[in-house]
């Protein structure tokens, strides 16, 4: 079955960096678009960054220039490099995979990122 497993979250100080990883399995990795979302309690989940099958990326305005999404098609892995972290980046981060046909819309269990000031 489709499975996404995030890792790499943790506690970091303001200005620090973290690398999140997402291991994907159960489907043909190269056919899916991936995104990293984040959610703060009481707020809706928000897209942080996405990467298409062609490697094109897009980022939410609050993280542009600080976060980098990448994918390794040989390893079935998606990454989110987060630099210059701010307290407002504190959230649970989720990896998401989408594909139109055959349809996939899957999300991992999430990994907590806490930025302390």
Average pLDDT rating: 97
Give the number of helices: 0
- Low-confidence segments: none
Outline: globular
Give a count of the beta strands, DSSP E runs of length 2 or more: 11
The largest β sheet comes out as: 7 strands, mixed
Assembly of the depicted chains = single chain
Written as H for each helix and E for each strand, in order along the chain, the element string is EEEEEEEEEEE
Terminal CA distance: 40 Å
- Helical content class: under 10%
Share in β-strands: over 45%
Helix/strand-derived category reads mainly beta
Radius of gyration: 14 Å
List the topology elements:
Elements: E1 3-7, E2 10-13, E3 18-25, E4 33-39, E5 46-51, E6 57-59, E7 67-72, E8 77-82, E9 91-99, E10 104-107, E11 111-116
Parallel strand pairs: 2-11
Antiparallel strand pairs: 1-3, 3-8, 4-5, 4-9, 5-6, 7-8, 9-10, 9-11
Task: Give a brief description.
By secondary structure, the chain is mainly beta. Helix content is 0%, strand content 55%.
Main traits of this protein?
globular, 117 residues, four-stranded antiparallel β-sheet, 0% helix, mainly beta
Structural summary, described in words:
With 117 residues, the chain is an all-beta fold. It has no helices and eleven strands. Strands 2, 4, 5, 6, 9, 10 and 11 form a seven-stranded mixed β-sheet that branches. The chain has a four-stranded antiparallel β-sheet with strand order 1-3-8-7, with no helix packed on it. It is globular.
């Amino acid at each position: 079955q489709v499975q996404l497993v995030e890792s790499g979250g943790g506690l970091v100080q303001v200005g620090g960096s973290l690398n999140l990883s997402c291991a994907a399995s159960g489907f043909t990795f190269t056919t899916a678009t991936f995104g990293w979302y984040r959610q703060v309690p009481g707020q809706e989940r928000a897209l942080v960054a996405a990467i298409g099958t062609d490697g094109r990326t897009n980022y939410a305005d609050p993280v542009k220039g600080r976060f980098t999404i990448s994918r390794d098609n040989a390893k079935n892995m998606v990454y989110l490099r987060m630099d210059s972290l701010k307290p407002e980046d504190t959230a649970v981060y989720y990896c998401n995979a989408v594909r139109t046909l055959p349809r996939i819309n899957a999300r991992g269990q999430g990994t907590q990122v806490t930025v302390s000031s």
